[in-house]
Structure of Tagatose-bisphosphate aldolase:
Amino acid sequence: MNSQFSIYNELTMNTKEILLKAQKEGYAIGAFNAANIETLKAITLAAKKLNSPIIIEASKGEVDYIGKTQLVDLIKDYRNELNIPIILNLDHSESFEECEEAVNAGFDYIHFDGSKLPYDENLKIAKEIVKMCHAKGIIVEGEMDHIQGSSADHTKEKPDEVLDKTLYTDPKKAKIFVDETGIDTFAAFFGNLHGLYSTEKRLKLDVLEEIRNLLPNTFLSLHGGSGIDNKDIMTAIKIGKIVKININSEMRVAFKNALKRSLNETSEVAIYKITPGAIEEVQKIVEGKIKLFGSENRAS
Ligand SMILES: [Zn+2]
């Protein structure tokens, strides 16, 4: 095995093998955002309890908050202690420089999101990032059609009031984008808005099926995983062989609500005695997703 490819445990699998196993065996790995040490603890506790592989997501805001090298070291510690596959992913990075910094810090997986850039520029930078990452055995995810919404509480709005269906991924264009850039994972947009809405989000599964048919060997991810109809999620894993599902908003809302309750109910000032309720609520969300995605007992 190429040791440069090895990320979570030099003796077992590398990132690509972890994703290939999911694709072959028909389950998806939850990609959960770690906003702080408490959410990281909740995610890893859930994964260990259910013996599941996981992807830890760190967006620019989260990376700035925790620190790149600190995140890398924390993930290494959790891998060694828990002995389960944990992939560290830079989530929705919009610049080459930021991706390069994450690569140098030791991230395992880079999601370059050039979807807000002119297409040619997105293509050019994605190619450069692929070259840089593949030299070190790092997986690259690319995005072409901006996945709308934001990882927040939008429960005053219905998904259809926000969605612009004309922006859904064109499968033929997706194939050209993947072939030209050489990315490993493609982030498609077919109803999977970021955020939580007043009703469950529904997916346009025929778009996904066409993408899968045109790109049989590419890893596919599903962003905006919070608040999607469970049946649609299961069908997406089945027909689309989705290997990575991003979850953030449900965890954010659960954490905030539980923390608010704890703060209102206690006169305690020792912070570590105030946060366990919030950690527990986030852990419950993560456990539910692991079961839904079918990754329980797939850690080895
Ligand atoms: Zn996303």
